[in-house]
Design goal:
This protein is mainly α. Helices cover 46% and strands 11% of the residues. The protein has three domains: 30 residues, no CATH class; 95 residues, no CATH class; 142 residues, Four Helix Bundle (Hemerythrin (Met), subunit A).
């Protein structure tokens, strides 16, 4: 059925009604994609592996563009539902019956079911793609146009973005606020390290040499030293490309990162702090996203093709796992 929202927008919904006597009726938004595979012998079939190779890049892109933390990758190991399907073909006189007549007829006499795989029976493999029902928000028309082209192109989500999505999942799904803070800071630190390597390679340094420099050179040890070195390399990049340069180190955004994210992550990791609130975790993720977004704007030719949305306005604390 269709539900009309206060804004005048309409959304497809799932209506559940269990009956008059002691039953109830509920209406909820739904967004679900299910694929069913039929195979006579799953040990020789690679259809699920092929499906995963096709679906996971699509899911990554949708998850990133819509910041939908509910979406998980599919895999043969954890996203399969396996069942044996027995079939009972309709008799010639049953083919032309109306649905009600057919169901009435099915209960009048015992059915003969084929139970041998390859001779009427099959294994059914079902891949569960969306872990929860109910989309946060539909993609806007402009985003849909971008998405329609984007899904056709090769793309690997940066590891820093992966950690941001994991932090959002901890915030909204598991309510593990300490882990949300840790993942958010990890996202930022991964981004800083990755950006340093990119800038070094851009300047002419070999990739192995750049990676080794982060490990061996004391000037690059710990995140604050990395941030200072990132400013140095970015200043050089900006000068070569006639771009304006704004320092991150000791800026107002840097101070917010240090207060709302870096210090709290250290409290969790080094001091064993466990009592973090939703607002603290949300602020930490927001700062991580703002910092990454700010740093990416300084090196346009080396930034990712997709930019993180720095806002946390679409997220709020709810008593259950989903809120609308």
């Amino acid at each position: 059925m269709v539900s009309s929202l206060k804004s005048g927008e309409q959304k497809a919904t799932m209506n559940t009604h269990s009956g008059v006597d002691g039953g109830y009726s509920e209406c909820k938004y739904y967004s679900e994609v299910c694929l069913t595979f039929l195979a006579d012998d799953i040990s020789k079939s690679d259809v699920m592996g092929r499906a995963c190779e096709i679906l996971n890049p699509f899911l990554d892109k949708y998850k990133l563009l819509n910041e939908d933390w509910r979406i998980a990758r599919v895999s043969v190991e954890r996203n399969i539902y396996l069942a044996t399907c027995h079939t009972s073909p309709l008799a010639p006189e049953e083919v032309g019956l109306q649905p009600r007549q057919l169901f009435d007829a099915l209960g009048q006499k015992p059915r003969t079911f084929h139970h041998t795989v390859g001779r009427g029976a099959s294994y059914v493999l079902r891949a569960n793609i969306f872990e929860f029902l109910g989309p946060r928000t539909p993609l806007a028309d402009s985003a849909l146009k971008v998405f329609a082209q984007f899904v056709q192109e090769p793309y690997d989500m940066p590891l820093s973005y992966e950690f941001v999505m994991e932090a959002l999942s901890c915030l909204q799904k598991q309510h593990e606020y300490r882990l949300a803070v840790v993942h958010a800071e990890t996202a930022f630190e991964v981004y800083v390290a990755d950006s340093l390597v990119k800038l070094m390679v851009y300047s002419g340094m070999a990739l192995p040499e750049a990676s080794l420099k982060l490990e061996k050179d004391r000037d690059y040890w710990n995140i604050k030293n990395k941030i200072r070195r990132l400013d140095d390399w970015t200043r050089t990049y900006s000068s070569k490309n006639s771009l304006g340069f704004i320092a991150f180190y000791r800026s107002a955004l840097y101070d917010r990162w240090e207060t709302n994210l870096y210090t709290k992550r250290n409290d969790a990791v080094h001091s064993g702090a466990t009592k973090f609130s939703y607002d603290e975790a949300s602020a930490a993720i927001g700062v991580a996203k703002e910092c990454i977004r700010f740093l990416e704007t300084r090196v346009p030719s080396l930034s990712d093709r997709v930019q993180l949305n720095a806002s946390m306005a679409g997220f709020r604390q709810v008593t259950c796992e989903l809120g609308f």
